[in-house]
Amino acid sequence: MIILSFFVMGLLLGVFRCFPRELQDCNISFYVLCLLMFLVGISIGNDSSMFQRFSRLNTRLIFLPLITIVGTWLGVIAVGLLLKDRSITDCLAVGSGFGYYSLSSILITQYKGVELGTIALLSNIMREVITLLFAPWMLKFFGRLAPISAGGATTMDTTFPVIVHNSGKDYAIVSVYHGFIVDFTVPFLVTFFCSL
Amino acid sequence: MMFVVIFCMLGGAAIGYLFRRRKILFIHRFILIVVWLLLFLLGIEVGANEMIIRQFGNLGFEAFLLAAGGTLGSVLAAWLLWLVIRNKILSSEG
Prior knowledge:
By secondary structure, chain A is mainly alpha-helical. Chain A has helices at 2-15, 21-25, 28-46, 49-54, 64-82, 88-95, 101-112, 114-142, 146-151, 160-167, 172-195. In chain A, 51% of the residues are buried.
């Protein structure tokens, strides 16, 4: 919510032109993005206990992140075929945010422009909200792994409580592992699809 | 330009790993603040773009379709995996 309010604040400032144009032209957001990625890198490299925790993981669930990624791609490709004025690679770039809306929207804005960046922001926020709202329903019809897959990159933070509550605490480690791996793939996959 | 961003992350990961013995605790708060700043900048860029403001409803609808498609696809894929491994997992849980 706080995150969204910053976006809305910027939006209003932009609409009413309360901002010096020069600041936009000097590409400040690109440098801030590089700083962000550097920080994200530090936090990943710094957390060595993560790898020890994963060693207790059920071996059959190691492929769950891959399942999530491929499933998302197939779903997004299907939608992409319906959206005639969007290329499939644009759709795949948006889908490869896996709910990690802050990073994916910022990356896509840099690579592909504001329009697709806005879609990425909204779409990935919606994915998180859908997961939060429908986790019990997913569990009921599609098994205990479904809420984890739906959560995408967010299963180690924002959707984690809901997943543990629904799928059970046996799935806590899987959820963190899944979120960590999918999270890590976002910058690579988004960059890849934007470069095609 | 795209790969500059990736290299920034890899460089950060290397530094984070070098200092893994001392936990850098403030990093998550710092990341959050930078994310706020970037979304604020994104907001300004979107707000100043009249074409996007006019199209906001359409963009929102496309975003919803992509979100729904992606989520449904991953849920169905997870269901398939669940059907395959369900019995083994439930028996190992006892």
